[in-house]
Design goal:
This protein is mostly helical. The protein has 2 domains: about 375 residues, Sodium/glucose cotransporter; about 80 residues, no CATH class. It is built from 20 helices and 2 strands. It has a two-stranded antiparallel sheet with strand order 1-2. α7 packs across α8, α7 packs across α15 and α16 runs parallel beside α18. The longest helix has about 50 residues. The protein is globular and about 65 Å long. The protein starts with a helix and ends with a helix. The mean pLDDT is about 85.
Length: about 500
């Protein structure tokens, strides 16, 4: 217990210390929200990765999908690394940095407003982001409850409130720069922690080969497999189609999430994108691949502790049951690992949501005259407000919140992915095309909550993204185009010369 407490105190002290250090870098709105657009590639890459993977992945998704798909759940981690990190940085990184800098935007809703010359689109995008980020933030806390109960036997309420307060303190003090520095520290902890935990868990099962052998002897309870053995160690697992849906949502979804794309806004230069791409991909392979690989052995830890009284399984209890037999020092590492993953994601979400609501909704709409100082005050107040709401939801979740948390990614990415991605490359995207994506993204995921025309909320979210990628260009082709002069001015940023080479050519270097 002493070891675990010491590790936690060191961790918390470090986070607050970084917040105090970064205060000098948060003097203006641009500094607070974007780190002055001068964040290096390593900090940006780790900020991207740690915002990507939270306790929801380590405890919830790894346990649930590892149980369902066995070792093949590792494909989710590979998809996260290749699609969610590598290809995302290659396709979106440089162009996002260049165009957002040219348009002088700090948030995704602001991008929609400036790129498509529509204040209404900006306001609606801000509302969508705010509504669906709150339940997603609440879900971040859930992965901690069982781990803290296992390690410290303390109430979940104490855990949630402590984590929320500490995250709020360092974000309010240092803004994006404090978040980025802490994300780097937390990312190092996550890399070391996941490797140590995987090694310890497999060692407890007699090593990798013995664990695989035992897992291969289990009969599948997935109906389509007809109960044969070996399904949980097969290449694509017992349910490849649903596995594909999870890969699409958790990998492609990051392309449309405001808190993820925001990292490209803040990176210091286009050339820094190359280093960031490599670092981010490596981070995702280790952390996400490791989490899902570990979860794939979940069925070896089948016990009464992971079932409810009615016999249904509690997926969030699987990973904690796997870790319960580890030595105290490793349990301490796991607690700090999950805290790192959760606090980094939480800080990114609250900063993105507060800045979006302030800059895109309140400024110019509710408060007409808002100078830089007032903007900072509003953002800091809204960070507190956002954290309080998410804590209340996490402590007293309404009956629908579990479903809503599951579709948050689908709604956000389904609405935003297509118009943001196409908007970086194609002048032909119209306002009607953007509206079509917003309506389909939110409409499909929310309506599926009530009518369940797609059995899995995960697959519904993946469908929403794919539909958005189709309807946006189709609607754009048949609706009125934006003004040519406006579009030429928007895209001229790619024609600026850098070292006697146009940005278009510069963007093609890699």
């Amino acid at each position: 217990m002493l070891i675990k407490i010491i590790l936690l105190l060191l961790f918390f002290g470090c986070m607050i210390g970084v917040g105090l250090y970064a205060r000098k870098s948060a003097g203006s709105t641009t500094d607070f929200v974007l780190g002055g657009r001068s964040v290096g590639p390593w900090l940006s890459a780790f900020a991207y990765g740690t915002s990507y993977f939270s306790a929801v992945v380590f405890v919830g998704y790894a346990g649930q999908f590892g149980w369902k798909y066995g070792i093949s759940s590792t494909w989710i981690g590979i998809g996260n690394a290749v699609i969610g990190s590598l290809i995302a940085w290659v396709i979106m990184g440089r162009r996002t940095r260049v165009m957002t800098h040219h348009l002088e935007v700090a948030t995704m809703p602001d991008f929609f407003g400036r790129r498509y010359n529509s204040n209404v689109l900006k306001l609606v995008a801000s509302a969508i982001a705010f509504v669906f980020m709150i339940p997603y933030t609440a879900s971040v806390y859930n992965g901690l409850s069982r781990l803290f109960g296992m390690a410290f036997d303390i109430p979940y309420t104490v855990c949630v409130v402590t984590m929320a307060v500490l995250t709020g303190v360092y974000v309010i003090l240092g803004g994006y720069m404090a978040t980025a520095i802490n994300d780097f520290i937390q990312g190092i902890i996550m890399l070391i922690g996941i490797v140590a935990v995987i090694g310890a868990v497999l060692a407890g099962q007699g090593g990798f080969m013995e664990a695989i052998r035992t897992l291969s002897e289990l009969e599948s309870d997935i109906p389509v497999t007809l109960g044969q053995k070996g399904a949980f160690t097969s290449f694509f697992g017992p349910d490849p189609l649903n596995l594909l849906g999870v890969i699409i949502l958790t990998s492609l979804g990051t392309w449309g999430l405001p808190q993820m794309v925001h990292k490209f806004y803040a990176i210091k230069s286009e050339k820094a994108i190359k280093t960031g791409t490599i670092v981010s991909t490596f981070f995702a392979i280790i952390v996400s691949g490791g989490c899902y690989f570990l979860g794939g052995f979940g069925r070896l830890f089948d016990s009464p502790a992971i079932y409810k009284a009615d016999g249904s399984i509690v997926y969030d209890a699987i990973v904690p049951s796997m870790l319960a037999t580890l030595p105290d020092i490793l349990i301490g590492v796991v607690i700090v690992l999950v805290l790192s993953a959760s606090m980094s994601t939480l800080s990114s979400l609250v900063l993105t949501s507060a800045s979006t609501l302030t800059l895109d909704f309140i400024k110019g709409t509710i408060v007409k005259d808002m100078d830089d100082k007032k903007q900072l005050i509003y953002i800091r107040v809204l960070i507190v407000f956002f954290i309080v709401i998410s804590v209340v939801l996490a402590l007293n979740p309404p009956t629908f919140i579990a479903q809503l948390m599951g579709i948050s990614w689908g709604a956000l990415a389904g609405a935003f992915l297509a118009p943001f991605l196409y908007g970086l490359y194609w002048k032909g995207v119209t306002k009607a095309g953007v509206w079509a994506s917003f309506i389909c993204g939110v409409g499909i995921t929310v309506s599926n909550m009530f009518f369940k025309f797609i059995a899995s909320p995960i697959n519904a979210g993946a469908a929403a993204m794919i539909v958005g990628l189709i309807v946006t260009p189709v609607m754009s082709l048949i609706s009125p185009k934006l003004d040519k002069k406006f579009l030429d001015n928007t895209f001229k940023c790619y024609d600026e010369t850098i070292s006697n080479v146009s940005r278009k050519e510069y963007l093609k270097e890699d």
